[in-house]
Amino acid sequence: MPAAIETQELTKDFLVGFWRPRPYRALDGLTLSIEAGEVFGFLGPNGAGKSTTLKLLLQLIYPTNGTARILGKPAGEVEVRRRIGYLPENPYFYDDLTAEEVLSYFASLFGLRGADVARRVSTVLDDVGIAAERRMRLRGFSKGMLQRVGLAQAILNEPDVLFLDEPMSGLDPIGRRQVRDLILSLRQRGCTVFFSSHILPDAEALCSRVAIVVQGRLVANGAVSEIAEFQLTGWELVAADVNESLRSSIAGRARKVTSIGAGRFVIDLPPEVGPDRVLAELAAGGAHIVSLNPHRETLEDYFIRQVSAAAPRQTGID
Amino acid sequence: MRAMVLVAGAVFRESVRDRVPYSMVMFAILLMAASYAISQLTAGQDMKIIKDLGLASMSVFGMLIAVFLGIGLVSKEVERKSIFALLAKPVTRTQFVLGKYLGLVATLVINLAVMTLAFYAVLAFMDLTAGPEKLVWPAPALDPRLLIAILLIIAEVAVVTAVALFFSTFSSPLLSALLTLGLWTAGHFGSDLRNFGTVVDSAPMIAIARVLYYVLPNLAPFDVKAEVVHGFPVAARHVAYTLAYGGLYAGVLLTAAVAIFRRRDFK
Question: What ipTM score was computed for the predicted complex, to two decimals?
Answer without folding.
Answer: 0.78
